[in-house]
Design a protein that fits this description.
Layout (H helix, E strand, L loop, with lengths): L21 H5 L1 H11 L5 H11 L4 H7 L5 H5 L2 E2 L7 E2 L15 H36 L10 H10 L9 H17 L13 H10 L6 H11 L8 H31 L5 E5 L9 E7 L2 H10 L3 H9 L5 E6 H11 L3 E3 L4 H6 L5 E4 L8 H5 L5 E4 L10 E2 L7 H15 L15 E5 L3 H7 L5 H9 L4 E5 L11 H12 L2 E5 L1 H9 L13 H10 L4 E3 L6 H15 L8 E5 L5 H12 L4 E3 L9 H10 L1 H4 L3 E3 L3 H19 L2
Length: about 650
C-alpha cells in the first residue's frame, strides 16, 4: 500500500484461518491442554481457547510451526555477514572456520554484538524522538505539547550546566533539548548522564575501557567492528558491546525517561487496572500499543474531546475507553492511570475479544501479523511511524507538528467503526485486576519521606534482604507469564524487594502482585515494610526504557553509601526475554555491576569461550556477570545467594 500523508486508504488483508487437524478442532481435552501449556494468564486462557477452536493464528502456533529450530542458528555459529557465506561451524565435519577465517568464538561474538547494538539503537532512537519533540515544543512547532514537570526540567538543566535563573520553561527546554541531542553524536567523549553513576563504578568502566562516549558513536562503531576484516578478537568485540549497552542505559534510554517525565509528567503512585477484562462492551475501545508516548499522550486528549464523545453516543456507545498494551501502555499506566490490557503476548488476544475497534501502533514489539488477525474481526490496525509501516494496516503518519489533528482523526475512525462490531464475536474475559503503579525514583523517595535512608536502614537491618530488578518480555519458549510471576513470588517470599518494568511488571499486575495486599505473600521483614508504607512488595517502575530508572535508583543508594553499584545487594533477571533490547538492558545491568540471571539461553553456546566470558570472566572486569537458569525457583536461589554474599561483604 502506498499513500500520501493524509490519504487514509485502507488495504485489508484476507482473514487467515489455520488448517488444524480435526483432533485439535474437535477434541476439547486437547484444546484445554494446549491452553494450559501456553499461559498462566487467566483472562488470556478463554481467548486462546477461542483462537484454537476457530483456527485463528497466534504467536504460539507460529512458534510450533518453526520447530525444530536450526541448531547452528540457536548456538550462534552460523554467519551470513558477508557474501562469501553463509558459513557454519561444524566441528564433526572439520568446518572449524568460516570462509574469512573466523572461528566459533568470533562468529558468536560478532552475532551477539550485532544483536546488542540493535537493541541499544532501538531504545536510543526512541529517546531521540522524545528529545526532538521537546525541542519542537520549545520552538512552538509541536501541536498541543507543554512542559508538564518544570521542576524536573530545571534540575536537569542545572545538571547540564545550563543557566536557569528567571528564564521561562520553553527557553530552558530549548537549551536542554540541544544539549541532549548533542549527546547522540558528541565529540566530548563522555555522556553527561553517566556521571550519575557512583565514582567507583565509573572507575571500573575507565579501567576496562568501556566508558560510553556517545550514543550514536558506540552503535556505529559496533556495526563497524562486526564487518568482516575488522574485529577479530572476541573479547575485544564483546567489551565494546558493554560500552554500547552503557550508552543505551545511561544515555539513550535515560534521556527517553527523563524527557518523557518533563513533557508528560513524572509518574506518581496511582491505582489502575490490568488484564483483558479492562475492555468495555458498551464503549468504543482503542488500544495503544508500542513504545513511544509522544502519540499516545495526544490520543488521551483527543478521547476527551466533547465532539468525539458526542459522536460516540450517536453511534450507540457509552463512551471512549482507552487501554494500553506493552510499553506504550506502561507509560500511560504510570502517568495517567490508563488501564492496561496486557503485555507482549496479549496483543493478538485483545483483538480476538471482538470488542476492539482500533489498535494504534507506533514501533517495537508489534507483530507484523496483527492485520491478519484483525481481518477476521471488525478491528482496524493503525500504524503511525514511518519507521514501522505495517502492510494491511491503515497508515496515519504522525508528526508532532500535527499531533492533535492526527489523534482526533484516529479516534474518530474508532468511533465510526464501533457500529461494525458483531455481537456474537464479542467475548470480554473476566474482571480487571487492580494494580498500584507509578513508582518513579522520585515517587519512591517521596514515599520514603524524601530520603532513601529508610530503605537503606531496612536493608541494613535485614528486613529487606536486597532488591532484584525483574524485567523483559514474553517468549514462547517459556509459558506466558510463568517465569515472571513464579520468580517474583519466590523473591518476595525471601524478603527480597522486586522492582519491575515492561512486560514483567504487567505479568505481576495480572497476578495481583502490584497491590499492597500482596505483602501477604512476602517474607515477614519485607511484608512489615510494605504494610508500614502501604506499598506493594513489587514496584512497577515503568516501560522497558525505564530500566534506566532502576540504574538511577541503584546509583542513588550506592552514592549514599559511597560504594560502587557492584557492592550493593542487588540483582537483575529477565525470565522470558526475547528481544534485542533485552540483550542491551541485561548488558548495561552487568556492565554497571548488577549480577543478572536470564531465563532463556542466548545464542552463544557454540562458543565455550564466549559463554565462559559472559558467565564468569566478566567478574574480573566489571565485578558482575550473567547466569542462565530457566527454572525460576533455581534462579531465585542464585539471586538470593548473590545478595547474601554482597551483604556479607558489606558487613550486614
Amino acid at each position: 500500500m502506498t499513500k500520501k500523508d493524509g490519504d487514509y486508504v485502507h488495504s485489508r488483508v484476507a482473514c487467515t484461518i489455520l488448517e488444524r487437524s480435526k483432533m485439535s478442532l474437535l477434541n476439547p481435552a486437547l484444546i484445554a491442554e494446549k491452553v494450559e501449556e501456553r499461559t498462566i494468564d487467566e483472562t488470556a486462557k478463554p481467548m486462546l481457547r477461542i483462537t484454537l477452536e476457530t483456527g485463528i493464528e497466534t504467536v504460539w502456533d507460529r512458534f510450533e510451526m518453526q520447530q525444530p529450530p536450526c541448531s547452528y542458528c540457536a548456538s550462534g555459529v552460523s554467519c551470513s555477514r558477508c557474501a562469501m557465506g553463509p558459513c557454519r561451524i561444524i566441528p564433526d565435519h572439520h568446518r572449524l572456520r568460516g570462509v574469512c577465517g573466523a572461528d566459533a568464538d568470533l562468529i558468536v561474538a560478532r552475532n551477539l554484538l550485532d544483536t546488542l547494538a540493535t537493541g541499544a539503537a532501538s531504545h536510543s532512537d526512541h529517546g531521540r524522538e522524545i528529545v526532538e519533540t521537546m525541542y519542537k515544543t520549545s520552538e512552538g512547532t509541536a501541536q498541543g505539547y507543554t512542559i508538564t514537570d518544570p521542576e524536573k526540567l530545571r534540575r536537569i538543566a542545572l545538571e547540564l550546566d545550563i543557566t536557569v535563573g528567571t528564564r521561562g520553561d520553553l527557553e530552558i527546554a530549548r537549551d536542554v533539548s540541544l544539549a541532549l541531542l548533542e549527546e547522540f553524536g558528541t565529540i566530548k567523549n563522555s555522556i553527561r548522564f553517566s556521571e550519575r553513576a557512583p565514582k567507583k563504578t565509573r572507575e571500573i568502566w575507565e579501567s576496562a575501557g568501556i566508558t560510553p562516549r556517545s550514543v550514536d558513536r558506540e552503535v556505529v562503531e559496533a556495526m563497524h567492528r562486526i564487518h568482516m576484516g575488522v574485529g577479530a578478537d572476541y573479547v575485544n568485540v564483546l567489551l565494546h558491546g558493554l560500552r554500547t549497552a552503557l550508552s543505551d542505559g545511561w544515555g539513550g534510554s535515560l534521556m527517553a525517561t527523563e524527557v518523557s517525565d518533563i513533557l508528560f509528567g513524572t509518574p506518581e503512585i496511582n491505582t489502575s487496572s490490568v488484564n483483558l477484562g479492562v475492555l468495555k462492551e458498551d464503549h468504543v475501545n482503542i488500544a495503544l500499543h508500542g513504545h513511544n508516548p509522544v502519540l499516545s499522550e495526544m490520543i488521551v486528549r483527543a478521547a476527551e474531546d466533547a465532539e468525539l464523545l458526542a459522536l460516540a453516543t450517536e453511534n450507540g456507545a457509552k463512551g471512549i475507553n482507552l487501554v494500553g498494551l506493552c510499553c506504550t501502555g506502561n507509560e500511560l499506566l504510570m502517568r495517567k492511570g490508563i488501564p492496561q490490557a496486557g503485555n507482549h503476548f496479549n496483543q493478538e488476544l485483545v483483538i480476538a475479544t471482538g470488542a476492539l475497534d482500533v489498535m494504534i501502533v507506533d514501533y517495537q514489539c508489534i507483530f507484523p501479523s496483527l492485520p491478519r488477525t484483525a481481518s477476521c474481526y471488525h478491528t482496524h490496525i493503525v500504524s503511525t511511524s514511518p519507521k514501522s509501516r505495517v502492510p494491511g494496516s491503515l497508515h496515519y503518519p504522525f508528526h508532532p507538528e500535527s499531533a492533535m489533528e492526527t489523534a482526533r482523526a484516529i479516534v474518530r475512525l474508532a468511533v465510526e467503526n464501533y457500529p461494525n462490531r458483531l455481537a456474537e464475536n464479542v467475548h470480554i474475559p473476566g474482571e480487571p485486576i487492580r494494580a498500584v503503579t507509578g513508582f518513579s525514583v522520585e515517587a519512591i523517595q517521596t514515599a520514603l519521606g524524601g530520603t532513601f535512608a529508610p530503605l537503606i536502614e531496612a536493608i541494613a537491618d535485614g528486613k529487606i534482604l536486597g532488591a532484584v530488578g525483574v524485567v523483559g518480555c514474553n517468549n514462547p519458549k517459556v509459558k506466558h507469564d510463568f517465569g515472571h510471576v513464579t520468580l517474583t513470588k519466590e523473591l518476595i517470599k525471601r524478603d527480597i524487594l522486586v522492582v519491575e518494568t515492561g512486560c514483567a511488571a504487567i505479568a505481576s499486575g495480572k497476578a495481583g502482585l502490584l497491590l499492597p495486599g500482596a505483602a501477604d505473600l512476602a517474607g515477614h521483614g519485607l511484608a512489615s515494610v510494605c504494610r508500614a508504607l502501604n506499598i506493594p512488595p513489587v514496584l512497577h517502575m515503568g516501560s522497558c526504557v525505564d530500566c534506566s530508572r532502576i540504574l538511577v535508583l541503584a546509583a542513588a543508594l550506592a552514592n549514599e553509601l559511597d560504594v560502587g553499584i557492584d557492592q550493593l545487594p542487588l540483582g537483575g533477571a529477565a525470565p522470558e526475554w526475547y528481544s534485542q533490547k533485552a540483550v542491551s538492558i541485561g548488558s548495561y545491568f552487568v556492565a554497571s555491576g548488577v549480577y543478572t540471571v536470564l531465563g532463556v539461553m542466548p545464542k552463544i553456546t557454540g562458543s565455550e569461550n564466549v559463554t565462559n566470558l559472559l558467565t564468569n570472566g566478566l567478574c574480573g572486569v566489571v565485578n558482575a556477570s550473567f547466569a542462565v537458569e530457566p527454572d525460576p525457583l533455581l534462579a531465585a536461589d542464585l539471586l538470593e545467594s548473590h545478595i547474601r554474599h554482597k551483604r556479607q561483604n558489606l558487613g550486614i
